[in-house]
Amino acid sequence: MKLDNIQSFVPPVRTLMGPGPSDIHPRVLQAMGRPTIGHLDPAFVEMMDEVKVLLQYAFQTQNALTIPVSAPGSAGMETCFVNLVEPGDKVIICQNGVFGGRMKENVERCGGTAIMVEDEWGTAVDPNKLEAALQANSNAKIVAFVHAETSTGVQSDAKTLCELAHQYDCLSLVDTVTSLGGTPVKVDEWEIDAIYSGTQKCLSCTPGLSPVSFSDRAIDKIKGRKNRVQSWFLDLNLVMGYWGGETKRAYHHTAPINALYGLHEALVLLKEEGLENAWARHENNYQVFRAGIEAMGLSFKVKEGDRLPQLNAVNVPAGVNEAEVRSRLLTEYNLEIGAGLGSLAGQIWRIGLMGYASNLKNIWYCLNALKAVM
Amino acid sequence: MKLDNIQSFVPPVRTLMGPGPSDIHPRVLQAMGRPTIGHLDPAFVEMMDEVKVLLQYAFQTQNALTIPVSAPGSAGMETCFVNLVEPGDKVIICQNGVFGGRMKENVERCGGTAIMVEDEWGTAVDPNKLEAALQANSNAKIVAFVHAETSTGVQSDAKTLCELAHQYDCLSLVDTVTSLGGTPVKVDEWEIDAIYSGTQKCLSCTPGLSPVSFSDRAIDKIKGRKNRVQSWFLDLNLVMGYWGGETKRAYHHTAPINALYGLHEALVLLKEEGLENAWARHENNYQVFRAGIEAMGLSFKVKEGDRLPQLNAVNVPAGVNEAEVRSRLLTEYNLEIGAGLGSLAGQIWRIGLMGYASNLKNIWYCLNALKAVM
Questions:
Q1: Which of A59, A112, A371, B300 has its CA 20 to 30 A from that of A34?
Q2: pLDDT in tens, B119-148
Q3: Is the pLDDT of residue B224 over 60?
Q4: CATH code at A91?
């Protein structure tokens, strides 16, 4: 590639129905392009306060420490682990897909010990297995699990898993990257202690930020640490000084101003629609999609009841080249759907109906395009 | 603050002449709002390759591992330290401002030992002091310093400092957050082993990404580590699989698509202008600014020769309320300039002429507005 030949990049216009990013609302894209202001500008500081209130609504929480981390969802995950795990801590991780494995990586890199509770990919986390692990590891400090597994389209019962964690004196740490804004996530009611999400799924926003929220119990653990948090960038003791509370903001890092404009607008859109209405829309559109998929003779990987309405793992029929179908959808129809990850590679497509992408126009387009290429 | 009252955020239009973010080029803002595509889309992957080539040009390097970290400059700093420092490693840090102190934090959080070489804030790093430290610490592994101190507007002699590091078998690790695109930064010629920068200074781009580059020597150290990198998100062994080289991209994290559109456009603009022309523009505009400041009877904190043309520490005259001046410039003139940090708080203003903000219109506006409020 020659430097001289590089021009401005004008992306193709795709329909995004993979596992994320999903279609971005036009108002969000417009917000991204607004004039940048300083990260300590009083107008920006006020916008940050609004983002916190809007995120509290999205997460259904009163937690004061409810902010977007200035980096993608993976950094949100890491924020939770590096702040809460100290060397030697035992963390029980319920794994039923790719992202539980990433949690294990995080725990180990913090010097903790990961106790893995495995469920088959494509099934929900089994609370009985978690309880057995809690009984066998009475000194465990944290229970971590993925509410909505992006790699399989499975939803687990977060409320029950958090209750179990607390019965055994553990903090609960929950991945809601794919659920927030698409299906119910109730931080206070479910007593989630640490939660992270992404912006590029059901919030209809561009990728790059990770909303997080921490309960008072979690903050007590962070403030009572014996060791410094190993990451300076993600150390909540420092980040709180910038995003936090009542006092004057202390400079920590330079916030990604325009990305935050986008998230603010996405959250205003969510508020305008209403959380319950957004959940209902995702559910209703899933029913339309399901009927269409089944009418084509296709089936779902995940059993009814555990399925996420916003992310569908569709079994690739025998004799069909899954990669070719995806490639043709992209090149001939500008339609992106996702491949399987890990042990499900080649076996499933992941078709997202997330956020702004969850609408009838997309669904009918996707069903017809699928028919056309198969 | 009531949820119900929160509306779309329409920022004021400011002139950004602080220490960053600086004014964003309109073409960059336009690029930020373009339609999002998938992070594994072939069109996006090609754009990533272009970003690498453009960054190699900006850094003046052939280093294959030249990429933007998906988070702000502080995360770029952390990327360099967590990948290069292992527990027990001695790192010599030349500190002459705020950001050397942040380097120390990083080293210690990696389990390393920081040997501090102190110079007065507002002066350049003294190579003689570095050499003495290298002689006294023959087992040091890395020499780290800030090329252009954002807190003081001082430029240090990166070439000489890197030469010294190599004479004593150390890797060189250099902060160029404020210099890249504004004054010469020559990674290959100066033999810099690890470098990070920001997008929101002389690149005229929004904040949120951190360009980094690593020499083969640095990569050898990373690949030969005894311990895993403590950050999963910033582990270059994994990031290389996504951004890297010849083979198929492996999913690591979801890239901040639209922020990368912005950086791509900013780098195309830099290429169109030409690096040498950009450096000359920053220098020429500084001369105009300097003449104007001196004509007002004001003086600079940093001695001529060590001064960064793109970031000027102007002494606050006796009897002038520095905070009130900044506040009036912002509210009455929509003009942002910066305060002093740390030990220089209250003593200086930091006035940036960075990237797109380095132009005569801004300079004459700033000089006249300063006159008006003082």
A1: A59
A2: 999 999 999 999 999 999 999 999 999 999
A3: yes
A4: 3.40.640.10
**Is pLDDT at B73 greater than 70 in this prediction?**
yes
| Same-domain check for residues B167 and B89 | yes
Domain-terminating residue out of A250, A271, A292:
A271
B90, with CB counted inside 10 A (0-12, 13-18, 19+), is: middle
Chains A, B: CB pairs < 8 Å = 268
Query: Do B43 and B139 fall into the same domain?
Result: yes
Q: How far apart are CA B82 and CA A19, in angstroms?
A: 30
Q: Are residues B303 and B331 located together in one domain of the fold? A: yes
pLDDT in tens, A6-62: 999 999 999 999 999 999 999 999 999 999 999 999 999 999 999 999 999 999 999
Asked if the peptide bond before residue A21 counts as cis, ω within 30 degrees of 0, the response is: yes
Residues B302 and B362 in one domain: yes
In a domain, B4, yes or no: no
Two tokens at B128? 């003689």
Residue B201 resides in a domain: yes
Residues B107 and B171 reside in one and the same domain: yes
Which residues in chain A land under pLDDT 50? Answer: none
Residue among A328, A44, A54, A338 at smallest CA distance from A205: A54
Q: A294 CB near a chain B CB, below 8 Å? A: no
Residues of B in contact with A47 (CB under 8 A): 9, 11
**Is B209 found in the same domain as B78?**
yes
Interface membership of A49 toward B (CB under 8 Å) = yes
| Banded model confidence at residue B69, pLDDT cuts 50, 70, 90 | very high
Q: Could you give the ipTM of this predicted complex? A: 0.97
Q: Which residues pair with B143 in a beta bridge?
A: B92, B172
Cα–Cα distance for residue pair B351/B15, rounded to 1 Å:
11
Task: Look up the domain containing B127 and give its range.
Answer: 26-271
Residues B109 and B242 in one domain: yes
The response to whether B350 counts as a known ligand-binding position is: yes
**How many C-beta neighbours within 10 Å does residue A299 have?**
11
Residues 143-172 of B with CB under 8 A from A: none
Give the residue from A354, A301, A321, A254 showing the smallest Cα distance to A121.
Answer: A301
CATH number at residue A339: 3.90.1150.10
Whether B110 has its CB under 8 Å from any CB of chain A: the answer is yes
In total, how many domains does chain B have? 2
For residue B245, the model assigns a pLDDT of: 60
Q: Dihedrals φ, ψ of A174, to 5°?
A: -125, 130
> What count of Cα atoms within 13 Å lies in the side-chain half-sphere of residue B313?
26
B74-121 pLDDT, tens digit per residue, is 999 999 999 999 999 999 999 999 999 999 999 999 999 999 999 999
**Within a domain: B1:** no
Residue A360 within a domain: yes
Amino acid letter, residue A275: L
Shared-domain flag, residues B211 and B307: no
pLDDT in tens, B148-170: 999 999 999 999 999 999 999 99
For helices A216-223 and A73-84, the axis angle rounded to 10 degrees is 60
Which pLDDT value is given to residue B241? Answer: 84
